[in-house]
Amino acid sequence: MDDPARGAERGGPLDPAELEMIAAEDALDAEAFADDALDAAAFAKDELDEDRLDEDRLDEDQATASIADLELPMPALPGETALGLLERGELTVVGQLHASSNNALLCLATGRSPDGGPDLVATCIYKPVMGERPLIDFPTGTLARRELAAFLASEATGWSIVPPTVMRHGPFGEGMLQLWIKTDDAVDPVAMVVAEDARLRRIAVFDAAVNNTDRKAGHLLPVPGGHVYGVDHGVTFSSVPKLRTVLWAWRGQPFSSSELAVLRRLRDGLGDALGARLGELLAPIEVAATARRVDELLATGVFPQPDPHRPALPWPPV
Prior knowledge:
It contains nine helices and seven strands, in the order αααβββαββααββααα. It is of the alpha+beta class.
């Protein structure tokens, strides 16, 4: 990119050789940022392992009960069944997630089984709009809609990255409701990031398309069978480029033919039904920016590099 300040120093516009040198410097900066991101992820894993050791040393009466300890029903439901239960099921609040910054509530959704069997009961996460914390870089009261927008984009890819998600009225007003995913406790998401697990590539592609500002390792949910879900998409679809993620392992590498095919399908959807649906949830400039991002990804054909002028990592990265 032409730097006016550098041109001013020599009294005129930059020549091609100088522009090439500046571009090379920016590429080196981006590479350094990405290396720092991976180093930070490895550091975070070490810190997390230390924390786990500390927790293991606690007496049983000092330990905090986890959600798993509650033994709540977490069935693996077909997509349409899950969406129907989330949309129409009766909600019962179990409690508030202590670490949530947006007053997320753990709930049970209870509804009729579509085959006439016993009632379905499933654990879900409810994020009421009225509980959202104001942010300086996203409009107030829009995070829940961005979660639904991310689910719709995920469904358009065919990758099922985002768990079933709906917008509905709940005990504390309108909010996002998402199926709670029972993870495979034998798989460590931080270790997956550090090991550059190939299953995370498609999530990196998805994040680049939706401009995910908060892809932490803790937002990756591996499940039995090998699939990996991604959650917490309330800060996506900004019209300003601000990709912050721990998934920089494939930066600059070419997309595979299947990844390109998915990006083309996503772009087609943005010009059709998906774009219309996103237009009900996002600002017009955000939908247009999403289409431009996908166009750029298709034009370059490679995973994006970190922007050396913006933070590359969410913090904390776990």
